[in-house]
Amino acid sequence: MINGMLAVAGADLYYEVRGAGPALLMISGAGGDAGYYAAVAEDLADAFTVITYDRRGNSRSTGREGTPTTLDEQAADARAIIAALADGRALVFGSSAGAIIGLTLAARHPEVPAGLIAHEPPAVNVLPDGDPARAFFPDVAAAYAEGGGAAAGRRFAQGVRGEGTYRWPDDLWKRFLGNQDHLFTAEWPALASFRPDEQALRSAPFPILLGAGSEDRDLYYARPSIEIARRVDAPWAEFPGIHMEYLRAPAPFAAAIRALATLLNWQATASPPSRRPPSCIP
């Protein structure tokens, strides 16, 4: 693994690169830390050049300015990482908030992704009016206003299936705790208001795939993936386990990414290229 810092507009981004082969950028969710994917990236390094990074304002990256961070800014950061480390084009995997950023990247910068896998984006605004899941972001924001980062973090964790049943790496946990205020102030408003650009995603010139964990289909961060897939005419795939299966059981999670990313890469490099993965993906 090699690591370094990349200067972008308003921040220096910490990154890690492992392996060789087609470039695969992995975008982290809440807490924005490259360490979420360390074990998965090691497993995939025999087949892909895996790029992970700390999103701006999080962990080892700079850019914590005390002002809201927009999704366009986050997508521009991902684009800059790909430009600097992958010659301008890469497969993209994002989970949770990272999936929202991946969908924004796909819509705003369609020349950049070779393919996109969006795992469990909590895009609750695509759910019907009155759906209880649409209260998630306001409820957590209210918890933060009343009790700060610790209270909001507890409220957040209560809604994430499986949390508390496995151990996070100590260094990752310590960095995550230091990122909570940034998450609930700078990042929360953009995530709460996100709506996918359905027209841009339907016309994307690369394959897009939505997915969610086998244990999560009924939850607020999984159901939107099914709805977005339907709206943008993209396939949907079931991943193993829970929302953060990449921490609980990284080997089977990496195996799922390996299969899907390989298929998307094949589809992206086919002649002529197609935006849809092969029909064998459910």
Could you walk me through the main structural features you see in this protein, from its secondary elements to its overall organization?
Mean pLDDT is 94; it is low at 278-282. The two termini are 34 Å apart. The protein has a single domain (2-269), classed as Rossmann fold (3-Layer(aba) Sandwich). Helix 4 (136-158) runs antiparallel to helix 5 (170-193). The protein is of the alpha/beta class. The chain is 43% helix and 17% strand. The protein has helices spanning 38-44, 71-85, 97-108, 136-158, 170-193, 198-202, 223-232, 245-248, 250-269, and strands at residues 2-8, 11-18, 23-27, 49-53, 90-95, 113-119, 208-213, 236-239. It is built from nine helices and eight strands. An eight-stranded mixed sheet has the order 1-2-4-3-5-6-7-8, with helices on both faces. Helix 1 (38-44) links the parallel strand 3 and strand 4 (49-53). The radius of gyration is 17 Å and the shape is globular.
